[in-house]
Design a protein that fits this description.
2 strands, 14 helices, mainly alpha
Length: about 250
Amino acid sequence: MNRYDKFINSLKKNRDLEIFEVHHIIPRCMGGGDNKSNLIKLTPREHFIAHLMLHRANPESKSLLKALQAMFRSNFFKHGAKLNGRKYDAMRRYAFRKTKKPSKDVLYEEYYTNKKSLAKIAKQFDVSEPTVKKWYINTFDNFITLDQRKYQRPSKQVLVNDLKDDEFPYKKIQEKYKISFSFLMVWRKDYGLTSNRSKKPSVSILKNLFIESKLNCKQAQKELEEMGYKVYYSTVRRWKKDIILS
């Protein structure tokens, strides 16, 4: 163990490591504990070398062999590729950069300001959705996912009153309940609160506007809005084209 002891003692000085792994100086399988004096911060390469030294000094120990073998289990390399300290260091640094947690401001902006789902944020940072969920749970108190908010929706009457007090695209309601526009539309659909924006007027109304009254699209849009139809100009143009060609 002399060589191993010298190696560990040379690394005990205070170092400011951005990427490190915590190593048990005396392995737990050999009676070492989790006390501070038995723990040391090592770079991934140093950690690999330390375990390699321990295994070579104690080849009969199955626990030390398993600890070393655990470092070889990675999809980062193709099956059968040899792993050394430098490759292990590169692998761990790559994994660290890939899963490095963004700042609190960035997390807040993406979820609360930009209204992105956890799945979209996970894709943006190239990590799994459960990882992103952990970031938010650990960063924000009383964090509630969109799925959980679905079951905390207001009653139908409360939502009806909110819709009356707000205008399309209902920014006030989105801010009040901290939800996206698409999620609000799910609530409306579930409660049967459909909008005239998605409804097409009857053929007789459209014929009256475009054929009998001979209104242009702008004038027809204004007339339809007075009837309660909130439609886009492009939609009115399409309806006019359909009526003329029919």
